[in-house]
Design a protein that fits this description.
Helix content: under 10%
Length: 283
């Protein structure tokens, strides 16, 4: 299925008996595996042949509560449960008529990319997941869209890049300006998750508590588990009053702190994180 996004029509994901719109869908194409044999004696080339088929990963972007089953899948994956799921992706034309459908079987969620958050941005904050299917197949699309999963009118607030709040125990986070995008990866064979580092930009005038922690944790060597911190990243609605989603951080440790070269009024902090948990409020 070629790349499809809301700008050219729309996309729907079918998962666990539910159907809901998502921002974009790409991948899942079956591809023959080409092998090259070692050259035989006296030959200046190696013979090539096919050896089975592989199915490309499926990338899906979503940024609202209507994709709740997808976010629930992320939640369990981050907890170490790599559940295999069946489903389908449907592309829709500008008149909302289904034009293609690709089914996937025994897919495992192998990556989740959390978008960059920037207080000066006006862009949506799209979560992107990467699914590794056991196999896919293209089937005739339905004549009409499947019934969409329930969503309360006016309550389906999208995630926006500027609408976030960072809280870390003992640190002044009131002037955090930007958090870089980061990706959580999973090993399908073991279920072990690899949680990435965080890169955070904040105002230099509010960096005092960060400098104190860096001095103690890095320079003075007070970096045991009891010196690590916990925190959370909340995605908020338009009026910044309602939490749409929260990522909880466990065992944060700072390892780099410096002035932003391009902007002396900002400081950049880099933190490692042992574990992250995604929580979506009910409703």
């Amino acid at each position: 299925m070629p790349a499809t996004s809301a700008t050219s029509g729309s996309c729907f994901l079918e998962l666990e008996g539910q159907s809901f719109p998502v921002k974009s869908i790409e991948g899942g194409t079956p591809v023959g595996v080409v092998l090259t044999a070692a050259p035989v004696a006296g030959a200046h080339f190696g013979e090539k042949h096919l050896s089975g088929v592989r199915f490309e990963p499926i990338a899906i972007a979503a940024s609202s509560h209507r994709a709740r089953p997808l976010f629930d899948w992320i939640t369990t994956a981050w907890q170490g449960t790599l559940a295999q799921k069946n489903g389908a992706v449907i592309s829709v034309d500008v008149n909302r008529r289904p034009r293609a459908k690709r089914e996937f079987v025994n897919a495992v969620l192998v990556e989740t990319t959390v978008p960059m958050l920037d207080g000066a941005s006006k862009h949506p904050a799209d979560f992107t997941v990467l699914l590794a299917p056991e196999r896919t197949r293209d089937v005739p699309p339905p004549t009409t869209l499947p019934p969409a999963s329930h969503s309360t009118p006016g309550k389906d607030a999208p995630f926006l890049s500027a609408n976030f709040r960072l809280d870390i125990v003992g640190l002044d986070c009131t002037r955090v300006a930007k958090i870089d995008s980061f990706t959580v990866k999973h090993n399908p064979a073991t279920g072990v998750a690899e949680f990435p580092n965080l890169r955070i930009e904040l105002s230099a005038v509010s960096a005092g508590t960060w400098r104190t922690w860096f001095q103690s944790f890095v320079i003075d060597g007070h970096s045991s588990a009891t010196d690590e911190k916990s925190g959370s990243l909340s995605f908020l609605n338009a009026n910044l009053a309602t939490v749409l989603a929260t990522i909880n951080f466990r065992n944060l440790g700072i390892f780099r702190l410096e002035n932003e070269p391009a902007d002396p009024s900002r400081v950049v902090a880099e933190l490692y994180c042992e574990r992250m948990e995604l929580a979506i409020p009910p409703g």
